[in-house]
């Protein structure tokens, strides 16, 4: 895998805009090359402003009818719950776009976790036309980074970090809500592109460990992201990048 591409922005606002620019560009490239754009959204708070920018300032830059929306992880809560990753993306972006229902592939956080994980695996297999042992190739997987070095819902010490067969698993994490659904490392690592969005001083130590620390995915789960045939882009603001060695 080629070295990750680091793009360091002055502040969070610049990061949100650059993330929207990069996404709009990748969308156009994907639709031109294979007629659609499969986007796997991140949860958390960082991407919210980017989602809003995509649906407003960049609305005309994207052929939205060709975009398929998926999620990298979800909290096991109803889709209208304050902690739902779907609810955030819907509020900030999806609700502002004239999408067909078949474009939105939501993880059903309201269902029992194990069956919701199995159902989402089936959804991915059906939508990507996968045989057993195959993994979806998302045009773009957006990821965040927790200050405990987690990404998606792959938390330190969780066996899911080493999952090699399943596409989606249910996990219990040491953060509220505790029950979550997450795509697995092989799904992330089959992506055409992975884009991390990380802002703020509170993430600086996590960024340092993941990018420059010893290889230890059990302690630093985001290190598991290494797409063999894909590109990794880290969008960082100066604060989140402040502990990195000079480059
Ligand atoms: C989630 C996310 C998670 C998130 C990080 C960073 O469901 O919470 O998928 O992986 O990206 O925890 O969250 P913030 O962007 O809120 O710092």
Give the CATH architecture. 3-Layer(aba) Sandwich
Helix content estimate: 25-40%
Question: What is the domain total for the residues?
Answer: 1
Which ions and ligands are bound to the chains? 6-phosphogluconic acid
Poorly predicted runs of 5 or more residues: none
Radius of gyration: 17 Å
What is the number of helices? 6
Global structural class: alpha/beta
By DSSP, the count of extended strands is: 9
Strand-and-helix sequence, N→C? EHEHEEHHEEEHEHE
How would you characterize the overall build of this protein?
The protein has 247 residues and is an alpha/beta fold. It has a single domain (5-237), classed as 3-Layer(aba) Sandwich (Rossmann fold), CATH 3.40.50.1360. Helices cover 28% and strands 18% of the residues. It contains 6 helices and 9 strands. A 6-stranded parallel sheet has the order 1-9-8-5-2-3, covered by helices on one side. Helix 6 (204-212) links the parallel strand 8 and strand 9 (231-237). Helix 1 crosses helix 2. The longest helix is centred in the N-terminal third of the chain and has 23 residues, at 12-34. The protein is globular. The model has no long low-confidence stretch (mean pLDDT 97). The site of 6-phosphogluconic acid (6PG) has 14 residues, from loops. The site of 6-phosphogluconic acid has 14 residues, from loops.
What brief labels describe this structure?
247 residues; alpha/beta; 6-stranded parallel sheet; 3-stranded antiparallel sheet; binds 6-phosphogluconic acid; single chain; 18% strand; Rossmann fold
Tell me the layout of helices and strands:
Layout: E1 5-9, H1 12-34, E2 37-41, H2 48-55, E3 67-71, E4 73-75, H3 85-92, H4 113-128, E5 140-143, E6 168-172, E7 179-183, H5 185-188, E8 193-198, H6 204-212, E9 231-237
Parallel strand pairs: 1-9, 2-3, 2-5, 5-8, 8-9
Antiparallel strand pairs: 4-7, 6-7
Helix pairs in contact: 1-2
Bound molecules: 6-phosphogluconic acid.
6-phosphogluconic acid binds next to loops.
